[in-house]
Specification:
Elements (H helix, E strand, L loop, with lengths): L1 H17 L6 H48 L10 E5 L5 E5 L2 H5 L3 H13 L2 H6 L11 H12 L4 H4 L11 H15 L11 E2 L7 E4 L10 E4 L5 H13 L3 H7 L5 H5 L6 H6 L16 H19 L7 E2 L3 H9 L61 E6 L5 E5 L29 E2 L3 E3 L4 E2 L7 E5 L2 E4 L5 H15 L4 H6 L14 H6 L16 H25 L16 H8 L5 H6 L1
Parallel strand pairs: 7-9
Antiparallel strand pairs: 1-2, 3-11, 4-5, 5-10, 6-10, 7-8, 12-13
Helix pairs in contact: 8-9, 9-10
Length: 594
């Protein structure tokens, strides 16, 4: 088949070769030239089309550039009149904003009125409002700055009302407030600091709590009762007298919490009267923020310094959870409540605290809400209402000083009143609540004379001091090295001072390493020296007395401002002195009882 096709092609080729030409050369030439001319015309048309497209692109680019320049050079909103700005508040509303220069001249009062109107306007209402022009025009930047300052405050809703009408105290009210301060702190006393002494006075209305050796809680003072409305009002009025209005706004109670926390109860009278009416003077202050309580403690510190004419008073503060717990126990051990025992009633059937004793019956314990701060019987330390009435602010040391409360409140069930196992439903809360109050504490630092008190000692009584720690291996080696350099290794003074390390050897124990390393190895520097006889201890006391006197004599030559004692000696304590030292941390009054 393929061969037939090839043969047929060869025949057609020969036939065409032998036939004469049907088209002359001139005709062919003319056709060629004609085709070339048409191609040139086509090429020229393509070039014209390309040029047209280029011009079109240039025109579009020019238009875009012109529009861009117009937009760039268009006056901004600082020179134009008004533009619409969206500001997010509790009710989203579109507001009209004036230019920046006009806004900066607006006063704070105008801003307040503006915000009040915003709170009353809804988007639908604004769309139908025919008097939009009456809305105050405030610049967006000014509102943002104002709002930022409010957000930084813990009391936004109060600071928002910059038109707050501060109470204007009359001269009679100022005088009465100053008299109340005297009742709280006592009369102004003479300076008790002389010749370098420092003195910590006993705060009025506070009780001394000894140290807790089980949890290493230092001795401290704690207020006998919860802070009352009268005391807190005295604090607020004193802030006004001193023109400390910013602190006043942060510290004043939010009495609206009576209705906010219990909207279904008829608490409007409590909101109107609880903090301000004299009938509630002796009731615990509530509805204050944690910041307000801390400001009260700061104010108490300042006022006590003024009353005692010194600047050495330790700060009042809120108690730690451990401090509160130790004070609430009142010296009792393993008791759930401050009064002891597992019961919430006494033998006569009376409730022992103010709480929520029976379902749907808040008054069964004698109080509908809070009770007076000195209600019910105190615990064995003399502290009132450590359980119930109001939950008292504390901080949890073992939880990075997390804020919390202890003791339960007037709305708590019995379990929340327990000292150790009580549930804290306000843990982590810093905002106001009508269930939360507080009582301040102050760490007890004692009384001492900075120049006479030897370093590393604690005063027992009178002019008797005792070392804070036992004599260590390092202290004893210092003594022995001094003897070696002074008398030599062969001297009796040196040899008699060496401790007996063989005391570690016992038949049934492997203490050989202690025999070799306990006294001499640096790892045991701060361990108490052992193997010392009574006579060796007496000689150490004599040596220490001589060395300290030498030190004081040297200081007397260079330091003319201070007086250093010379009539003292180190010695071993008597039995009575040691027992007195074991009771350090107790106040003078309790020491006398012991």
């Amino acid at each position: 088949m393929e061969q037939d096709k090839n043969k047929r092609l060869d025949e057609l080729f020969k036939q065409a070769k032998n036939e004469p030409s049907k088209v002359s050369f001139e005709e062919t030439k003319g056709q060629f030239l004609s085709s070339v001319g048409n191609q040139h015309v086509a090429t020229k048309g393509i070039d014209i089309a390309k040029l047209f497209n280029l011009k079109l692109i240039i025109m579009i680019t020019s238009i875009i550039a012109t529009v861009a320049l117009v937009l760039v050079l268009k006056p901004t909103n600082t020179t134009k009149a008004i533009e619409k700005v969206n500001i997010n508040y509790s009710t989203p509303t579109k507001l009209v904003v004036a230019n920046e220069k006009q806004v900066l001249q607006e006063q704070q009062q105008v801003i307040t009125e503006y915000l009040r109107k915003v709170d009353r306007i809804t988007p639908d209402g604004l769309a139908l409002n025919q008097e939009k022009e009456q809305i105050l025009l405030i610049p967006a930047d000014s509102l943002k700055r104002y709002k930022k300052l409010l957000v930084q405050s813990a009391r936004i809703t109060e600071l928002l009302d910059t038109a707050y009408q501060f109470p204007i105290l009359t001269p009679e009210e100022i005088l009465a407030n100053n008299k109340q301060k005297v009742k709280m702190f006592g009369k102004k006393k003479q300076q008790k600091v002389k010749n370098g002494q420092w003195y910590q006075p006993d705060p009025e209305g506070f009780l001394f709590i000894p140290m807790d050796t089980t949890k290493r809680t230092h001795a401290f003072y704690i207020k006998r009762t919860e802070v009352s409305n009268l005391e807190y009002r005295t604090f607020l009025f004193d802030l006004l007298i001193q023109n400390r209005k910013e602190e006043f706004l942060k510290a004043k109670p939010d009495q609206a919490m009576w209705v906010k926390e219990y909207p279904n109860a008829f608490n409007q009278p409590m909101q109107d009267n609880y903090f301000s009416h004299p009938a509630y003077n002796d009731y615990p202050v509530v509805a204050i923020s944690r910041e307000g309580a801390e400001l009260f403690c700061k104010w108490m510190t300042e006022e006590l310094n003024v009353m005692f004419n010194l600047n050495l008073v330790n700060n009042f503060r809120l108690p730690s959870s451990d401090e509160w717990e130790f004070a609430a126990k009142g010296g009792l051990v393993n008791q759930p409540y401050p009064w002891g025992g597992p019961y919430l009633r006494n033998s006569k059937g009376c409730f022992l605290a103010n709480f929520y004793p029976i379902k749907d019956n808040y008054t069964a314990d004698g109080s509908l809400h809070t009770a007076k701060v000195d209600s019910y019987n105190p615990n064995d330390y003399g502290l009132y209402c450590m359980s119930g009435n109001v939950a008292e602010m504390v901080y949890y040391e073992d939880e990075n000083n997390l804020p919390g409360t202890r003791g339960g409140s007037w709305s708590s069930i019995g379990q929340e009143l327990q000292i150790v196992e009580g549930n804290d439903r306000f843990k982590g809360r810093t905002e106001p609540s009508v269930n939360v109050g507080f009582r301040p504490v102050m760490t007890y630092l004692g009384r001492a004379n900075a120049q006479i008190n030897p370093s590393g000692t604690v005063k027992i009584k009178g002019n008797i001091y005792i070392d804070k720690t036992e004599v260590s291996n390092f202290d004893w080696r210092e003594y022995v090295m001094w003897l070696e350099k002074t008398y030599g290794k062969t001297a009796m003074e040196y040899r008699n001072a060496l401790p007996d390390t063989l005391v570690w050897k016992e038949k049934e124990s492997f203490n050989e390493p202690y025999t070799q390393y306990y006294y001499s190895h640096p790892a045991y520097n701060d361990y108490p020296v052992v193997g010392i006889s009574y006579e060796q201890a007496v000689q150490y006391c004599k040596w220490r007395t001589e060395r300290v006197k030498e030190l004081f004599e040297t200081k007397m030559l260079t330091d003319k401002k201070n007086v250093y004692p010379t009539n003292f000696e180190y010695r071993l304590p008597t039995k009575e002195e040691w027992e007195a030292a074991a009771k350090i941390g107790y106040s003078e009054k309790i020491q006398q009882q012991l």
